[in-house]
Design brief:
Two copies of one chain form a homodimer. Chain A is α/β, with parallel strands linked by helices. Chain A has helices at 47-53, 103-106, 158-161, 167-177, 193-204, 219-225, 261-265, 289-292, 307-320, 333-344, 357-361, and strands spanning 6-11, 22-27, 35-45, 70-77, 89-92, 95-98, 117-119, 141-145, 149-151, 185-189, 208-213, 229-232, 248-251, 273-276, 285-287, 298-301, 326-330, 351-355. Chain A has two domains: 6-166 and 305-361, Quinone Oxidoreductase, Chain A, domain 1 (Alpha-Beta Complex); 168-301, 3-Layer(aba) Sandwich (Rossmann fold). Chain A binds chain B through residues 103-104, 107, 109, 112, 114, 177, 243-244, 251, 269-271, 273, 276-280, 283-303, and chain B through 103-104, 107, 109, 112, 114, 177, 243-244, 251, 269-271, 273, 276-280, 283-303. Chains A, B: Residues 193-318 form the Alcohol dehydrogenase-like C-terminal domain.
Chain lengths: 363, 363
C-alpha cells in the first residue's frame, strides 16, 4: 500500500546482514490529532544507526529502517497541531515521543522522560498508539508527534541541517547546560560526527575550544572547524600541561578502547563536568571515589536535548552560518551499504547525508 | 625532649600491628611565622585513621600518630599570624597546608590544591619546611599553619565539636556546594560518622532528608537525627518508589561491597549530583555512559571543605545547637586499641572522641 497508510523504506533484517538493505513497504502508526507526516528529502547517517543494525547495542526489532537525522516537508498535520504548518520544511531527530505530563517533560527534560520514551526507530509503540515498531528516516515518510518535529530556519541548507537533528543537538545540549561560553575552556574528545559539531557549536558559543584526539591526524580539520587548541593523546605526558584547566569536557568518543579515563579526568578544574555523549559498545570503566577526589570532577552523560535547545541550536547555526561537514550520498541499497560500512570504519569527514529521495521514492 | 621541640603521642609502627599504640616523643616541624601550636584536649577517631594504620589505603610513613579531628588551645602563635589568638579554643582538621597561591587556593578550593597538599598526619613536609612526617592528634600538640586552624564558637561542646573537624566538614561541604536546602530532597547513604553529620546538617540546612542504609537497624537513630524518611536497601524494589526524585545524594558509605550503583543512580533527578565522600578500600565500580543516560546523573566526589565552609559549619552547629553523637574514650594504649577495633567493626554510634589528654600528657 502506498502512503498515507504505509511508508516505503530500506530495512535491515538482522545484525548478521547489517549492510543488506531491503526496500519495502511498512505500516505507519495510526494518524493522531497531534501528528505530523513528514515527506523525507534528506537524512543523516548516525553512529547509532550502525550500532543498532550491527548488533553492537544488543537485540533489536527487525526488520528495521534506521535513520534519525531527518529533514523533510510537513505534508499533513493533525487537526490539533499548532507547532507545525503544512508545507513547512521540518526536521525530526532521534526521539519521537514522551509522556508530556511528568516533571521531566514539563521541565524541558523530555529526553529524560521516565514514563514513555519512543525512539524515532526501533521502539514499539504501546497498543493504544497502534503497537507498531517505529521506522526511521531511510524511508519515504515518518509520522511524528508535533512536539518532536522542528521547523528548520531559512538559510540552513537541508543537507547540512540534517545531521544537526541528532549529532548536532547531542553536542549542543551538554555545552549549553554546562555553561560553555566566553571565558570557558571546553574540550571536545573524539572528532567524528558529534565531535565536529562539538567544536563548531562550542566555538559559536564563544568558548575556548580544544579538540582532544588520539593522534594529530585530524588537527588541521579541527582547527578549520574552529578549535583553538589540539591535544593528541598518543603523545607522552599529553595531559600534564592541561591538568585542572578545563571547565567542561564533552566526550564524544565512540569507543573506549585504550581510554585512560583517569588522565582525562585530571584535565578538569574543580567540580567541572566531564560529560559523555558517545555510547561505546565496549565494557564500562572502573571508577573509584579516590579517582575523582583530586579535583572533585563530576562524571556524567547527556541524552539528546530539549525542544527549546533544538530550536536555539538551529537558529544559532542559521545566524552564524555554521556549516556541517557533509558528504552527500544517494539513498538506495548501494549508497546505504557504502555509508554504513565506511561509517563503521570512521571513514567519513564527518557526516553522510542521504539525498536523492525523489529518485527512489518519487517526487 | 619536651614541647616545644617535640610533641608526645601514640604511634603505630606497622599495618600488621595497627592496634598497638606506642607512646613516644617525636619532632615537630620547625616553627614558622605563620604557625600555630595547639595543645590538644580532644580528638575524634575518624575512619581514615583506621584505613591508614591498618593498611587499607596502602603504604604509609610509620611510625605514625594519626588523628585529625583535633580540638585544643592555641598555646603559641607565630609573629605573622592574624587569624588565631593565643589562648583561643581552636580546631584542626584533616589537612594542614596548601600552597595558598594557586587558582584553587584563591578560589576557596584549597582542599583541591594541585601544588602542595599536606595532610595533618602521614605527609612528609618538603625539606624547606623541615622534612618531617606530619603527626596527628593522638598526641599532645600539633603545629599547623594558621589557615588550617579554626576558632571554635562558644557554645559548641569540645567533645562534640571535635568530630566536626573532619567528618562534619566532609558531610557539610558537598551539601552546601550542591544546593541542599528548602525544597530539595537529599539522600545520605551510610549511617556512620560522616553520614550522621550528613543527616544533621542537611536537616539544619532545611532540606528534606532521607537516610539510605542497608537495613532498618538504624532507622530509629536516623529519625532522631532528623531524617524525614528512611530507605533500606535490603528490601525488594527499594529504589522503585524514589526514582528520579533526589536532588542530591551524598554517599558516605565506607564500603562498596554489594553496592548496586545503578539502583542508587536511578534515584537521581535529571543531572542531579551523586557525590561520594567515603573512600572504600574495595575495587571501584564499572560505569558505562549508558548507565548514566536515563537521567543524566552526575557522579562525583568531594574532599573535605574550604576554610569558609568550616567556619560556617561550626557557626551553624553552634547557632542551631547541633549535637554530634559521641562516645568519649580515654586516650591511651588501651582506649585507642578499643576505639580503632570497634570502629573497624562499625561498633560505634557514631563517633569516638578521645578525651582525658591532661591525664596522659599533663595539664
Amino acid at each position: 500500500m502506498p502512503y498515507p497508510e504505509e511508508a516505503e523504506g530500506f530495512q535491515i533484517d538482522s545484525a548478521e546482514t547489517w549492510t543488506d538493505f531491503h526496500k519495502r513497504h511498512f505500516k505507519l502508526k495510526p494518524f493522531d490529532d497531534y501528528d505530523v507526516d513528514v515527506k523525507i528529502i534528506a537524512c543523516g547517517v548516525c553512529g547509532s544507526d550502525v550500532h543498532t543494525i550491527s548488533g553492537g547495542w544488543g537485540a533489536q526489532h527487525f526488520p528495521l529502517a534506521v535513520g534519525h537525522e531527518i529533514l523533510g516537508i510537513a505534508v499533513r498535520v493533525g487537526p490539533k497541531v499548532t507547532l507545525i504548518k503544512e508545507g513547512q520544511r521540518v526536521g525530526v531527530g532521534a526521539q519521537s515521543f514522551s509522556c508530556g505530563e511528568c516533571k521531566q517533560c514539563k521541565n524541558e527534560n523530555e529526553t529524560y522522560c521516565p514514563v514513555i520514551m519512543i525512539d524515532t526507530y526501533g521502539s514499539q509503540w504501546p497498543e493504544k498508539y497502534g503497537g507498531v515498531v517505529s521506522q526511521g528516516g531511510y524511508s519515504s515518510h515518518v509520522r511524528t508527534n508535533e512536539r518532536w518535529v522542528f521547523p528548520i530556519p531559512e538559510g540552513l541548507d537541508t543537507n547540512l541541517a540534517a545531521p544537526m537533528l541528532c549529532a548536532g543537538l547531542t553536542a549542543y545540549s551538554p555545552l549549553v547546560r554546562n555553561g560553555a561560553g566566553p571565558g570557558k575552556k571546553v574540550g571536545i574528545i573524539g572528532l567524528g560526527g558529534i565531535g565536529h559539531f562539538g567544536i563548531l557549536f562550542a566555538k559559536a558559543l564563544g568558548a575556548e575550544v580544544w579538540a582532544i584526539s588520539r593522534s594529530r591526524a585530524k588537527e588541521e580539520d579541527a582547527r578549520k572547524l574552529g578549535a583553538d587548541g589540539f591535544i593528541a593523546t598518543d603523545e607522552t605526558d599529553w595531559e600534564k600541561a592541561h591538568t585542572f584547566s578545563f571547565d567542561l569536557i564533552v566526550n564524544c568518543a565512540n569507543s573506549s578502547k585504550g581510554f585512560d579515563l583517569a588522565k582525562y579526568l585530571s584535565l578538569m578544574d574543580v567540580h567541572a563536568p566531564f560529560v559523555s555523549v558517545g555510547l561505546p559498545e565496549e565494557a564500562g570503566q572502573e571508577i573509584k571515589a579516590q579517582n575523582l577526589l583530586a579535583n572533585g570532577v563530576l562524571i556524567g552523560a547527556s541524552h539528546l536535548g530539549s525542544r527549546r535547545e533544538m530550536l536555539e541550536m538551529l537558529q544559532l547555526a542559521a545566524d552564524k552560518g555554521i556549516k556541517s561537514w557533509v558528504e552527500e550520498i544517494q539513498i538506495g541499497e548501494e549508497g546505504l551499504k557504502e555509508a554504513v560500512t565506511r561509517l563503521k570504519k570512521n571513514d567519513i569527514k564527518y557526516r553522510f547525508t542521504l539525498t536523492g529521495y525523489d529518485k527512489v521514492f518519487g517526487a
